[in-house]
Structures are given as structure tokens and as C-alpha cells.
């Protein structure tokens, strides 16, 4: 069974929450605000051209997101989602700069591939994670840090 909302998961006993429907959208919203609202961090990261920021950003994002299944406090969940956005904000300018530098005369093609694979991963992750979360519960999110460690 695929769950359409947090409330559906709660009614089947997968999660325990006292959240109202209007609160379930706040963690993703704050993650996006953090990602999109940190243009100065992006500019700073791009200016200093430090490759290690791409690795640290990936590890940071994976760590923060892997902890989301362990928290039972709504405010802490919003904080973790926001902190994960910081990792994303640090990763993207550095990674796109690295693709640009390494691609030489095929910059447009390889940057398009970079963006396409990012979108592919974003679209594919629910298909992989939802069955895993349904089978083992939200506490299994801590295991999701392993791919982040491998990639970073």
C-alpha cells in the first residue's frame, strides 16, 4: 500500500503524531526556504572554489535527512529539514563548478546530464524509500546515511 499522507500512515499505526494536516507541509517548505534562501552562501562557495564543500555538503545533507525518522518533536523535524537545506545550498554551486571545470568543451551537455541525474534521483527516491519505510518503519532512515557517506 502506498500512503498519500502522514495522516494515512498514522491511521495504520506506522507513525505516531499529533500534527495537524496543515503542519505536515512545513518541513519540506523550510528545507526549500533554506536551500533557495541562501544565495549568499552559494556565492561564497562559488567564489572560494573549494571542492571539499561539495563533499561536506553531501555528507551534511545525508546526515540531517537520515535523522528525521528518529525525531518525535515537530519543531526538531523542521530544524533538521532546514539544516539539510544548508548542505544542499553548499553542494550545488561547488558541484556545478566542478562539472564545468572538468567538462572542457562539452560544458552544456555535461551540466545538463548533472541536472538530469539530480532530478532523476529526486524522482526515484520515493519509489525506493516508501516500501522500505513501510516494511521497517521510520527508524530505518538512520541507515540512509550510508549512501551519503559512500557518495561523499
Automatic annotation (TrEMBL):
<dbReference type="GO" id="GO:0022857">
    <property type="term" value="F:transmembrane transporter activity"/>
</dbReference>
<feature type="transmembrane region" description="Helical">
    <location>
        <begin position="52"/>
        <end position="71"/>
    </location>
</feature>
<dbReference type="InterPro" id="IPR036390">
    <property type="entry name" value="WH_DNA-bd_sf"/>
</dbReference>
<dbReference type="InterPro" id="IPR036388">
    <property type="entry name" value="WH-like_DNA-bd_sf"/>
</dbReference>
<feature type="transmembrane region" description="Helical">
    <location>
        <begin position="108"/>
        <end position="129"/>
    </location>
</feature>
<keyword id="KW-1133">Transmembrane helix</keyword>
<dbReference type="Pfam" id="PF07690">
    <property type="entry name" value="MFS_1"/>
</dbReference>
<protein>
    <submittedName>
        <fullName>Fosmidomycin resistance protein</fullName>
    </submittedName>
</protein>
<dbReference type="GO" id="GO:0005886">
    <property type="term" value="C:plasma membrane"/>
</dbReference>
<dbReference type="InterPro" id="IPR011701">
    <property type="entry name" value="MFS"/>
</dbReference>
<feature type="transmembrane region" description="Helical">
    <location>
        <begin position="77"/>
        <end position="96"/>
    </location>
</feature>
<keyword id="KW-0812">Transmembrane</keyword>
<dbReference type="InterPro" id="IPR036259">
    <property type="entry name" value="MFS_trans_sf"/>
</dbReference>
<keyword id="KW-0472">Membrane</keyword>
Amino acid at each position: 500500500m502506498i500512503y498519500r499522507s502522514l495522516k494515512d500512515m498514522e491511521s495504520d499505526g506506522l507513525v505516531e503524531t499529533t500534527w495537524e494536516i496543515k503542519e505536515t507541509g512545513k518541513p519540506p517548505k523550510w528545507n526549500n526556504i533554506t536551500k533557495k534562501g541562501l544565495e549568499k552562501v552559494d556565492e561564497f562557495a562559488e567564489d572560494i572554489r573549494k571542492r571539499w564543500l561539495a563533499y561536506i555538503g553531501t555528507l551534511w545533507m545525508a546526515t540531517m535527512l537520515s535523522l528525521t525518522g528518529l525525531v518525535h518533536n515537530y519543531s526538531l523535524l523542521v530544524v533538521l529539514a532546514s539544516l539539510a537545506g544548508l548542505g544542499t545550498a553548499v553542494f550545488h554551486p561547488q558541484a556545478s563548478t566542478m562539472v564545468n571545470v572538468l567538462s572542457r568543451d562539452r560544458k552544456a551537455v555535461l551540466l545538463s546530464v548533472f541536472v538530469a541525474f539530480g532530478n532523476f534521483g529526486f524522482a526515484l527516491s520515493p519509489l525506493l524509500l516508501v516500501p522500505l519505510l513501510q516494511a521497517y518503519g521510520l527508524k530505518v532512515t538512520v541507515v540512509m546515511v550510508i549512501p551519503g557517506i559512500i557518495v561523499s
